Backbone:
């Protein structure tokens, strides 16, 4: 609930972008771990107003540079293919001074056009919709081909650098700032015993055995918009972390939440299992979109993209818990610990179902007649 004082302030921020006299209402949208998000309702249109969390994004202008460059490129591609860019690409609203950001009380705000008659999900409610999400994530990769990754700023350094994230965790354990180390010994052991996994993707990026691509880097279900009437996926939203990366990051991160049978903060770990039917539906739709783009070396990493992205996020939740919950927004004292334990359980599910998951990937490759020389390394050969 927005208080009177905050509402007046938000009206003054929104007035930097739109005519304040036409604003009917401003509502808070309680989604996302990082930025504060609001819906600005006007007679004929709606807008998304966001406060950028500068503790996470130290260069808001660099972030907006990336979004502008990528959306301009995507818009041209969408128009070329004969589709409607207003429903397939995010559109930035400029301030009355023709700027991308408004600065109020040393805080940075941006506005985006709200895509009407659209919806998103924290948990995808059906296999068919998750297949659509797979198509959307794959289509993003297909559309962005040809965009030079070096043009983009690194908005969060080492974002999907799993070995670096592990070093951060070890430092948090050593400092033990909040005296929470003793209660997470089991979780710490999990990360220690899996250390050999962490450099699998980053090493291949560094030695160029897989290509660096433009990647979304935050492909959770709530970052895909669907048409309310047709249930077809429209586009990827929340492009704050669009940077150089690997295609398997986007694949794995989407499955991390989307193929789980529970929310990522479900406390009852017995409910935290993975849905292999959902996994296949997503993988088949994703590969159908990227089959002319993805390389054999990247296909070999699909399983590891799923596992390592899940481990990395679990690691980040635990690190934040040890540091005193300074990065992710929380709703209660041990929220980040609950999230970390939840994601560790997902990792354990992935590891226990390794053979089944790889068989599904192989089946999808055969069904789509993707004839690449692929040999996915077994976990036993890594440990």
Residues:
């Amino acid at each position: 609930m927005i208080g009177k004082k905050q509402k007046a302030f938000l009206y003054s921020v929104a007035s930097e972008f739109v005519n304040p006299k036409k604003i009917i209402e401003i509502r808070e949208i309680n989604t996302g771990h990082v930025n504060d998000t609001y819906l600005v309702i006007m007679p004929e249109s709606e807008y998304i107003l966001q406060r950028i969390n500068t503790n996470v994004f130290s260069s808001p202008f660099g972030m907006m540079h990336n979004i502008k460059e990528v959306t301009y490129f995507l818009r041209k591609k969408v128009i070329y293919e004969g589709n409607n860019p207003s429903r397939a690409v995010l559109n930035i609203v400029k301030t009355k001074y023709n700027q991308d950001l408004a600065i109020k009380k040393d805080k940075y705000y941006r506005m985006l056009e709200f895509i009407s008659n659209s919806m998103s999900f924290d948990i995808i409610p059906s296999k068919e919709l998750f297949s659509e999400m797979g198509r959307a994530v794959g289509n993003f990769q297909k559309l962005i081909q040809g965009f030079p990754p070096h043009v983009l700023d690194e908005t969060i350094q080492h974002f999907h650098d799993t070995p670096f994230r592990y070093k951060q965790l070890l430092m948090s354990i050593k400092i033990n700032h909040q005296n929470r180390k003793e209660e997470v010994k089991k979780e710490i052991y999990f990360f220690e015993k899996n250390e050999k996994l962490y450099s699998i993707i980053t090493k291949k990026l560094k030695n160029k055995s897989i290509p660096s691509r433009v990647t979304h880097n935050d492909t959770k279900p709530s970052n895909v918009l669907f048409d309310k009437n047709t249930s077809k996926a429209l586009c990827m939203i929340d492009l704050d972390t669009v940077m150089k990366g690997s295609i398997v990051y986007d694949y794995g991160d989407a499955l991390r939440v989307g193929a789980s049978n529970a929310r990522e903060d479900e406390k009852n770990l017995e409910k935290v299992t993975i849905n292999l039917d959902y996994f296949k539906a997503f993988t088949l739709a994703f590969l159908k979109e990227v089959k002319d783009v993805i390389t054999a070396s990247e296909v070999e990493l699909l399983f590891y993209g799923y596992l390592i992205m899940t481990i990395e996020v679990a690691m980040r939740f635990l690190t934040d818990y040890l540091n005193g919950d300074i990065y992710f927004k929380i709703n209660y004292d041990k929220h980040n610990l609950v999230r970390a334990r939840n994601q560790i359980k997902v990792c354990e599910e992935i590891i226990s179902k390794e053979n089944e998951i790889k068989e599904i990937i192989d089946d999808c490759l055969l069904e789509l007649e993707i004839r690449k020389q692929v040999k996915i390394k077994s976990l036993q050969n890594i440990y």
Q: What stands out?
A: The CA atoms of residues 25 and 337 lie 36 Å apart. The chain is about 45% helix and 10% strand. The two ends are 50 Å apart (CA to CA).
